[in-house]
Write a structure and sequence with these properties.
Layout (H helix, E strand, L loop, with lengths): L10 E9 L8 H9 L4 E10 L5 E4 L6 H6 L13 H8 L6 E9 L4 H9 L12 H10 L3
Antiparallel strand pairs: 1-4, 2-3, 2-4
Length: 145
């Protein structure tokens, strides 16, 4: 996948763990909807297994069980191989043995135009962070009624 450095939006990643190796592809429809709506563009997607002995394996979509592969058949986009084995190993370090995970890198396509405008106007992003869901819920609960 060719990424245009001049127009790329913010790029993020997420490592979503499935304790007990219970990954089954049920996230695929929601992921396909996010891609289909233009909100994100997938840059890389890798599945990771941390075995009971702590060893890590990375798997491409086509190496998963047939029913899981089928769940991702409707996912538009090209997987680039952006993540190296070293990247995967570092991120998988936090996984519990006997777990699996989906490691996803995406462009926040909805923000690409804004990011380009910021750069072209001489602006620069100084900070950006995703707030954990629990932090937001606690802050909302603390607001006066």
């Amino acid at each position: 996948m060719a990424l245009d450095a001049a127009s790329i939006g913010p790029v993020e990643y997420a490592l979503v763990a499935f304790p007990g190796n219970r990954f089954n592809g049920e996230i695929a429809p929601a992921l396909a909807q996010a891609v289909g709506s233009g909100a994100i563009r997938i840059i890389d997607l890798v599945f990771v297994v941390k075995n009971a002995d702590g060893s890590v394996e990375s798997l491409e979509i086509d190496a998963l069980p047939a029913e899981t592969v089928a769940a991702f058949d409707h996912l538009d986009g090209e997987i680039s191989g952006l993540l190296s084995e070293q990247d995967i190993g570092l991120l998988a370090a936090d996984l519990e043995p006997g777990s699996s995970a989906a490691l996803l890198v995406w462009e926040a396509a909805w923000a690409a135009h804004l990011a380009t405008a910021v750069r072209e106007s001489g602006g620069e992003l100084l900070a950006r962070e995703t707030l954990p869901r629990e932090t937001v819920l606690q802050a909302l609960a603390a607001l006066p009624a």
